[in-house]
Amino acid sequence: MIAPQQICEDALTASAADGCVVLVADHSETNLRWALNSLTTNGQMRTRSVTVVSTRRDRGGTSVGVVSRPVTTADEIVPLVRAAEVAAAGAERAEDAAPLVEPYHCDDDWAGEPATTSVSVFERFAPELARAFVDWRGRDRQLFGFAEHQLTSYFLASSTGLRRRFDQPDGRIEINGKAADLTRSAWAGQHLADFGGAELGLLLGDLDQRLDWAATRIELPAGRYETLLPPTAVADLMLDAYWTASAKDAEEGRNVYAARDGGTRIGQRLADLPLRLYSDPTAPGLACPPFVLAESSDSALQSVFDNGAPVTPADWLRDGVLTDLVRTRAHAASTGRAFRPLVDNLILDGGGAATLPDMVAATERGLLLTCLWYIREVDPQTLLLTGLTRDGVFLVENGRVRGAVNNFRFNESPISLLHRITEVGRTEATLPREMSDYFRRTAMPPVRVPDFHMSTVSPAS
To answer: What is the DSSP-derived secondary structure letter of residue 193?
Structure first.
C-alpha cells in the first residue's frame, strides 16, 4: 500500500481548497475469542482510513467539508479530495470555524513506518488461557470471552505546514465465567497497552470468587442502599460526566454544569471529599494523542478546525471543585477563555489507599456491585442516568459477602454522587464495561456511596 505520509502529501498537493487537513489512521488488530472453555476464533486484520477536511472561505464566513474513506492506492486520493471540496462548497457557515493550526515544534517520527501489532502479542497469554480452560472444565465451570490488541498510527498533515504523528497501542480482555447450568455469571475485564501486563490469573481468581459467592441467593427489594462501586462502574459513570462537560452547553443552560445565574459552575464545589478528576496525555499506561484528532465536528466538544492543536494535561475537578470545561478554539476565542480540548483518557483520584476487599471488610451492611450496563441519560439538566446492574450484585454484612442478590435498575446522577461519596479507595487502571467500545483509558478508585438508588428490581441476569 502507498505510505500514509505520501497520502498526506499527495492529498495536500491535489487540494484546491482554501485550507486542507489530512488525517490517516493506519490500524492493525489481532484477537482471540473463546466460549465453553475452548478457543473459537483468532484473527488479524489491517485497515486504513483517510479523512480529508476542506475549508472554503467567502463573505459569509467559512464552510467545511469532511469526507472519510479507506484508501490503499494513489488513484483513490484525488477523488477523495474532490469529494471533500464539493461537501465544503455545499455546506453552511461553520459555527466552529477557526484558522487552521500553524506549525510548531514537536519530536514526532513523521517519516517512520506505521506501527503494527500481530498475534505474537499473545505468546504468553494464550498458553495461560489454555491451562485455564483445562482447570475450569475440570471444575464444571465455563469461560467465555475475548482478548484483542490494536495499534493505530495516526498521521496528520495540514496545508499550514503542520505535520504530526502518534502511535496508539490499545488492548483489552473481557471474560465471563459461568456455572455449568448458566444460573450464575461473573464478569472481569482489563485494559492494557501491552499484553505483557495481562493479569489473567487475577481476573480468573476474581471470577471464581464471585461465582462462589453467587451460590447463595438472596432477594432484596428496590431502595437506597450503601453501595460499593468498583473502579469499572465508577469509570462508566464518570465518562458520562466527562462527555457532557461542554462549556458552550453550560453557558447556554443545557447541561448539568450550567449555573442558575446564566454562567457555569466553574469554581463551585461538586464533591465534599478532595477528589481530582483529570486527563493527561502522558499518563503512564494511559498515554494518548498529544494533539487533537477530530474526524467530525461537534460545536460543543470538538472541531475539525482544531486538528493538530496541542493537547495538554487538564484538571476538570480539583480538591472537589469544578476547575474547567471543554472548549473548542472557536468557542474559547468568542468567550475569552482558554482552549480546552477533550483528552482521550480520564483519571479520578481521591488519595485513598484502600482496596476494594479492604472496603468490603469495613462494611457493616451494603451492596457490592460488579458492573453497570445499558446506561442512558434521563435528564441533561441534572445528568440523571438510568441503567442496570449486571453479572453479580452481592450483599455484604459485617465485613463478609453473604451471597448474590437480584439485579436492579438504578437512577443516579454522577454529579450528585460526587457530593455523596463517603470513601474513596486506591486509584487503579480499569476497563469501563459499558463504554469499552468507545473509551478505555481510565483509572478510577472504588468508592462508597451511602444511599445509591436502586429504583426497581430487574429480571436481568
So the answer is: S
Global pTM value: 0.96
The answer to whether the CB of 207 falls within 8 A of the CB of 184 is no
In which band, very low, low, confident or very high, does the pLDDT at 262 lie, cut at 50, 70 and 90? confident
In the block, which residue shows the cell 458520562?
A: 240
**Gyration radius from the chain CA atoms:** 24
Place of cell 439485579: 407
| Alpha carbon distance 341, 315 (integer Å) | 12
Contact assessment for residue 266 and residue 325, using Cβ atoms and an 8 Å cutoff: yes
- What b-and-e string marks burial along 15-46, b requiring 16 or more CB atoms within 10 Å of the CB? bebbbbbbbbbbbbbbbbebeebeeeeeeeee
Q: Beta-carbon neighbour count of residue 406 at 10 Å?
A: 18
CB within 8 A of 142, min separation 6: which ones?
Answer: 36, 37, 136, 177, 178, 179, 180, 182
What is the reported pLDDT for 60? Answer: 82
Tens-digit pLDDT profile for residues 176-212: 999 999 899 999 999 999 998 899 999 999 999 999 9
- For the cut 90, the answer to whether the pLDDT of residue 386 exceeds it is yes
Q: Give 175's pLDDT tier (boundaries 50, 70, 90).
A: very high
Segment 39-59, tens digit of pLDDT: 999 999 999 999 999 999 998
Backbone torsion region of residue 75, taken as left when φ is above 0, otherwise alpha when ψ lies between -120 and 50, otherwise beta: alpha
Domain topology for 4-208:
PmbA/TldD fold (3.30.2290)
DSSP codes, 228-295:
EEPHHHHHHHHHHHHHT-BHHHHHTT-STTB-TTSSB-TTSB--SS--EEEE-TT-TT----SB---S
Coil/strand/helix, residue 165: strand
Contacts of residues 383-387 at CB distance under 8 Å and 24 or more positions apart, as own/partner, are 383/240, 383/241, 383/244, 383/255, 383/256, 383/413, 383/414, 383/415, 384/411, 384/412, 384/413, 385/237, 385/240, 385/410, 385/411, 385/412, 385/413, 385/414, 386/410, 386/411, 386/455, 387/434
Residue spans in the chain of domains classed CATH 3.30.2290.10 = 4-208
- pLDDT for residue 461 is more than 80: no
Contacts of residue 336, defined as CB under 8 A and 6 or more positions apart, other chains included, come to none
